[in-house]
Design goal:
Helices cover 31% and strands 29% of the residues. It is an alpha/beta fold. Keywords: ATP-binding, Nucleotide-binding, Transport.
Length: 260
């Protein structure tokens, strides 16, 4: 499957007059799963929001298959890209299936409601995140992890070739962390996710971009990028990569490093 090419050229994002990320030049399109990592406040969410076209850059440009995002109409952009924000919370009173149906809006005419195809997408998305049994409940009656999965289901129902996920595994138990990343991969979409767990990055992602102080500090294959030296320099922890008895390479955090 050919992945769409999302690119950022000389991107700068400012918030309240302060430059948060600067001189970002990135191209996405070769690897299905890309992780964006960095310490709190490094600029990951700011970058993702600019890539999603939610916040306009102060300078530079984001392009989708060579076309400036700013010139793509919102409905088309919503068909091209689904975005799950870091702190997205479904409205308390809304039924779970109605919230997931919001992912189908880019395909509907005003007040047309769900078609049979829309309902199929909603049902499939809820099945994939393991929440089909609570489809008729109100979102307010869900646990934190279930709410997170409902937001992911909304994005999956959107059926777009690019999935931008800001901390998709937040609030999820260990099994659902694995299953959400697996279903993101199985969706066939180009996935770009900000994520804190470096071991999940090692085992689920093809590429990792390390953001440090609003700039790209490293970019490449996780096992090659997330060396002990880089992890110490960027995250200020001691880490080690090791091979499990099942043959997978993991990254363990040993301890916090203090300045001498
Ligand atoms: N609405 C805002 N107003 C002012 N400053 C903001 C706002 N949103 C973000 N910032 C600042 O921008 C910087 C980058 O924030 P951003 O959320 O992009 O970082 P992040 O890498 O995603 O962090 P985290 O891992 O904590 O989610 C931080 O210094 C933050 O305080």
């Amino acid at each position: 499957m050919t992945l769409p090419v999302l690119s950022a050229a000389s991107l700068r994002c400012d918030i309240a007059g302060r430059t948060i990320v600067d001189d970002i030049n990135l191209k996405f399109g070769s690897e299905p799963m890309t992780a964006i990592v960095g310490v709190n406040g490094a600029g990951k969410s700011t970058l993702l929001r600019a890539l999603a076209g939610i916040d306009r850059p102060a300078a530079g440009e984001v392009r989708l298959d060579g076309v400036s995002l700013a010139s793509i109409p919102p409905r088309q952009r919503a068909r091209d890209m689904a975005f799950v924000a870091q702190n997205e919370v479904p409205p308390q009173e809304m039924r779970v299936s109605d919230f997931v149906s919001l992912g189908r809006l880019p395909y509907q005419r005003l007040f047309s409601g769900n078609s049979a195809e829309d309902n199929d997408h909603v049902e499939r998305a809820l099945e994939l995140v393991g929440l089909i049994d609570v489809a008729d409940r109100s979102c307010g009656a869900l646990s934190g992890g279930q709410r997170r999965r409902v937001c992911i289901a909304r994005a999956i129902a959107q059926d777009s070739p690019i999935l931008l996920l800001d901390e998709p595994t937040n609030h999820l138990d260990v099994r659902h962390q694995q299953s959400v990343l697996r279903l993101a991969k199985d969706s066939g979409a180009q996935v770009i996710a900000a994520i804190h767990d470096l071991d999940l990055v090692m085992n689920h992602f093809d590429r990792v971009i390390v953001i440090d102080g609003g700039a790209v500090a490293a970019d490449g294959v996780p096992s090659e990028v997330l060396t002990q030296e880089l992890v110490a320099g960027v995250f200020h922890v001691d880490s080690c990569q090791f091979c499990s008895p099942y043959g997978r390479t993991h990254l363990a955090i040993e301890r916090e490093l203090h300045a001498e």
